[in-house]
Design brief:
5 helices, single chain, membrane, aspartic-type endopeptidase activity, two-stranded antiparallel ribbon, alpha+beta, aspartyl protease, protease, transmembrane
Amino acid sequence: MSAQPSAKGPSRRVAILTAAVIATFAWGVDQLTKWWVESSMVLGEQIEVLPPVLYWRYHLNPGAAFSLGTDHTWFFTLVMTGVLGFVIWHSRRLGGSWLWASGLGGLAGGVAGNLTDRLFRPPAFGLGEVVDFIAVPNFAIFNVADSFIVCSMIAVCAMMVFGLNIDGTRETTRDRGADASSSEDEEDR
């Protein structure tokens, strides 16, 4: 499979630095907003922001999305640790793509934000409850870290669908056709 280099992008070092800066920014904004919620609201309090579509509602979540798995907080701590390690490990392959640097940086920062809660918030190390506060009616209550995770995963999926590789190369339609036909040839043997 051949891949075409993408338009001039950042060097590998700049891409990794960009991902680290975005991760640090995402983590910092997440932790700052959670600190603000904890210091200015009481648990369960709701403040209208843009009624009827957006509220701040202070909530502690021991589980995952939609409060699933509340009795398995330790499992989510392990999963988040693994995801963060996976993202950091694969960031070494970055090169020539601002989009991938942004996507992986946002994902790492979001995961690190929620992992910080799991590790350092009550009730115990590794079992901490995540602070959620962004409430949208008939949906979930979430936080800034969750927003970075979701947006970054959408971006990563889009880059994969459109053939932008993590190293900055781009697969062409012809390359994908050649891969498909070589797979068919192997099946015929």
